[in-house]
Amino acid sequence: xxxxxxxxxxxxxxxxxxxxxxxxxxxxxxxxxxxxxxxxxxxxxxxxxxxxxxxxxxxxxxxxxxxxxxxxxxxxxxxxxxxxxxxxxxxxxxxxxxxxxxxxxxxxxxxxxxxxxxxxxxxxxxxxxxxxxxxxxxxxxxxxxxxxxxxxxxxxxxxxxxxxxxxxxxxxxxxxxxxxxxxxxxxxxxxxxxxxxxxxxxxxxxxxxxxxxxxxxxxxxxxxxxxxxxxxxxxxxxxxxxxxxxxxxxxxxxxxxxxx
Length: 260
Ligand code: CAA
Known about the structure:
The chain is an alpha/beta fold. The chain folds into two domains: 6-198, 2-enoyl-CoA Hydratase, Chain A, domain 1, CATH 3.90.226.10; 205-250. It is built from eleven helices and ten strands. It has helices spanning 30-43, 69-72, 77-95, 112-119, 146-154, 156-165, 171-177, 189-198, 205-217, 223-236, 240-250; strands at 6-11, 14-19, 52-57, 62-64, 101-105, 108-110, 122-126, 130-132, 169-170, 182-184. The strands form two sheets. A six-stranded mixed sheet has the order 1-2-3-5-7-10, sandwiched between helices. A four-stranded mixed sheet has the order 4-6-8-9. A hairpin with a 2-residue loop joins strand 1 and strand 2 (14-19). It is globular and about 55 Å long. It binds acetoacetyl-coenzyme A. Acetoacetyl-coenzyme A (CAA) binds at residues 24-25, 27, 65-70, 87, 108, 110-112, 115, 134-135, 138, 140, 142-144, 146.
């Protein structure tokens, strides 16, 4: 497959995946998901010579500003649930990848972008990084595992606060909350991610694979939560509030929700 939305390159046995839609703040559209699925589910799924993956976003402003809102406007319940499940499944490929996947978060990591970073096994944030789940502003909820993984990382009390207020989490707070592994000066996110991956270079590949499998198994009881999330996401796609929220974004105005 020729990647159009991603830059994918191998250097010194490390795979660098850059979401390359800078003008749309690297928002995840349908084709970007297809390409991510190909990278993690096919092209590199069995590549044992790759020692790790760094995922980042093109430009200085955003890691990924979320699902592509412009593609969300034509949703019904069935399509919404399918979209959410597809996103979850592709992020599971990343979470379960057989070598460490580190997000180098260079700016906004919002909605699906925050969810993408949380599916990575580790996160390095630049000082200007901002994390958040602003989906409620659109009359939606996170649909790519965000309601489940934010709780896993920072605990329910703070996760509920950020989920319900849509407040953004700055890099320093993300470090203190345990959402990110390191905060580094802007521009050094990728090199720090590489430094972490290099520390795993000489470990047994099978042991690395099994360590990742075992750590992920700890959270298996959350699976019902993912199903609940997809169903709720699909339901919301039928709501007027969702249409209002997405239209307001596209029209650059404040949304007026009616609770319907
Ligand atoms: N989808 C599509 N386009 C997006 C986008 C998104 N998520 N985020 C930003 N863009 C586009 C904007 O539309 C704009 O494009 P135009 O120049 O063509 O109008 C461009 O990127 C630059 O964005 P802004 O002008 O808005 O930049 P800003 O600096 O004023 O604001 C921002 C930056 C705060 C990140 C703002 O862009 C924003 O709030 N983006 C949306 C964030 C969001 O709500 N994410 C959640 C998406 S829903 C989701 O992810 C659902 C899910 O879990 C499945």
